[in-house]
Amino acid sequence: MKLHWQILIALLLAIVAGVLAFDPSKTSLAYRIFDFIGLAFLNALKMLIVPLIMSSIICGIANIGEQGGVGRLGVKTVGYYMTTSLLSILIGLLFVNILSPGIIDGEPARERIGLSAETDEITEKIGGRGAGDIAGIFLRMLPPNIVMAAAEGQMLGLIFFGLLFGFLMTRIEGSKREVLTLFWNGVLDVMMAMTNLIMKFAPIGVFGLVAKVVSSTGIGVFVPLAYFFFTVLGALAAHFFIVLPGLLWFMGGISPVRHYRIMLPAILTAFSTSSSAATLPITMDCVEHQAGVSNRTTSFVLPLGATVNMDGTALYECIAAMFIAQAYGLNLGLVEQFTVVLTALLTSIGVAGIPAASLVAISIILSAVGLPLEGIGLILAVDRVLDMCRTVVNVFSDSCGAVIIARSEGEKGVLAG
After folding, report:
1. Buried-exposed string 235-267: b where 16+ CB fall within 10 A, e elsewhere
2. Which of 99, 201, 207, 277 would be 14's cystine partner, CB 3.0–4.6 Å?
3. In the chain, what are the domain boundaries?
4. Burial of 409 (0-12, 13-18, 19+ CB in 10 A)
5. In whole angstroms, what is the distance from residue 182 CA to residue 194 CA?
6. Does the domain spanning 3-408 belong to CATH 3.90.550.10?
7. Distance between CA atoms of residues 396 and 137, nearest Å
8. pLDDT of 97-135, one tens digit each?
9. pLDDT score of 313
10. Are 360 and 140 in contact (CB under 8 A)?
């Protein structure tokens, strides 16, 4: 049985097991077993992240540098990621303005959902914090200690270091360059072998992760915030089923249906782990070995995308900020909405590919437009489920970028057959 079918079956069994073992107190034996299984699998994936990102980025840049075209591939990659992130934010803005989930029966939802801060106090309370926080995101590209950055999961710093190391590695002469190239290619081969080994246990890990969530929250977790939940879900679906397939079709001449089928293992893993970084090994395996994209493109585009390309996260941040504003009865004008769009775009670049990292970014957006941070507590009840969904969009967008860029580079055999 193919891996994606194994994962899908595990997903369905996890929902059933979670419902049967429902325990909001999180103290039952079943919950602790689910937690252990899921955490073991997640830790195994996270164990691969740093060496896999470093080796793949360095090898990718070194290979591109030897063949020429570092600048061209970089421009295409960044251009694609900025375009899709901006499109996702605009879709979120469209949905939240049309559906107005923060308005219930014509009235702001503040009292119904327990928000306590007064509108008049909001700007005075937290004004002026946004710009410095955004600047901090870009400072993370230059970590003072690369080992500490790796230990703390600061992927942006690792990506930048890997890009610089790989590029300059091609500029040294003779046997030293050959030794370094062989070493990093060997590390990459070992990391991919470890990925294949760990993926054999993916169905068991997915079962534990999903059963844990369902057993602690229940199926009805989103009932109090149904309007917000389905607004986000609808916007994510529009980007996932309309925008990204459209880009595949028109920019790459690629069948979206075939690409969905090939990416199923990565999509299901992203859904269960809520982490684009933890899903990266599976994404790379699907894109390179199933979709037929070269290692040259895969090892450059995907690790970069796992850190800087967060379509689903940017969309969610935009809707969350607008929803909280609506719930307080605040009417954000064009200038304030533009601030939301710009801040969501910038913060999505620096958000780490780990579960719930977008909550940090949302606090920056709320501060930038003068909204109270207590609004974050409002959306926590449904954040876990939506986190799973937006991670799927993040990962799928990365994979679309890889195949579109590969086709633009003239690679043959991409999604052929």
Report:
1. bbebbbeebbbebbeebbebebeebbebbbbbb
2. 207
3. 3-408
4. middle
5. 18
6. no
7. 24
8. 999 988 877 877 766 655 555 545 544 443 444 444 456
9. 87
10. no
Decide: 297 and 412 in contact? Cβ < 8 Å: no
Task: Identify the H or E element spanning 237.
Answer: helix 226-238
What's the sign of the alpha-carbon dihedral 40, 42, 43, 44?
positive
**In the predicted model, is pLDDT for residue 403 greater than 70?**
yes
Write out the two tokens for 17: 């097991």
Question: Which pTM was predicted?
Answer: 0.73
Return all residues near 337 (Cβ < 8 A) that are at least 6 apart: 93, 322
**Which residues, in sequence order, are bridge partners of residue 107?**
104
Cβ neighbours around 30 below 10 Å, total:
16
Residue type, 65: G
Record the tokens describing residue 84, joined without a space: 């899709």
What does the alpha-carbon distance between residue 85 and residue 257 come to, in Å, rounded to a whole number?
A: 22
| Eight-state DSSP code of residue 107 | E
* Angle CA 410–412–417, to nearest 5: 140
- Residue pair 67/295 in contact (Cβ under 8 Å)? The answer is no
Closest C-alpha among 136, 54, 135, 128 to residue 366 = 128
Q: How far is CA 275 from CA 134, 239, 356, 393, in A?
A: 22, 19, 9, 11
Count of H helices and E strands in the chain? 19, 2
- Please tell me what DSSP assigns to residue 127: T
State the chain's maximal CA–CA distance in angstroms.
73
Query: What radius of gyration, in Å, describes the C-alpha atoms of the chain?
Result: 22
Cα 49 to chain centroid, rounded: 14
State mean pLDDT over 393-413: 93
